[in-house]
Amino acid sequence: MSAEYELGQVIASRELVLTAPDGTQSPVLLEVGLPCRDPEGPDWYCPCRITGHPGVGDRVTAIFGVDSLQALQLALTRFPGELSGLNDAAGLTFLGGRDLMLGGEGS
Hints:
- It contains one helix and six strands.
- Strands 1, 2, 3, 4, 5 and 6 form a six-stranded antiparallel beta sheet that branches.
- The model has no long low-confidence stretch (mean pLDDT 87).
- The N and C termini lie far apart (32 Å).
- By secondary structure, it is α+β, with helices and mostly antiparallel strands.
- The chain has one domain.
- Strand 4 (44-51) and strand 5 (60-65) form a beta hairpin.
């Protein structure tokens, strides 16, 4: 069973640029929402979303942790992992460079 989550209040975001093989550029937005308590348990979750990338669905993902800090920390580590395989093929850049500055090696 998969619950749907709302992004809610955005507390952090980053805009990347996706360059298609034909040279067309479009924005890819990474967003992190305010951590919230899980209404069905003792844990916390942090909503996050990637929009504008054809290889990633524009859906809100909830990343869970034992407290709000861990949920936020784990949500931030989601982006390098999800984008790493897409970055080489898709031409993602941040501030004109290939390093997306997301904390992961080669991200």
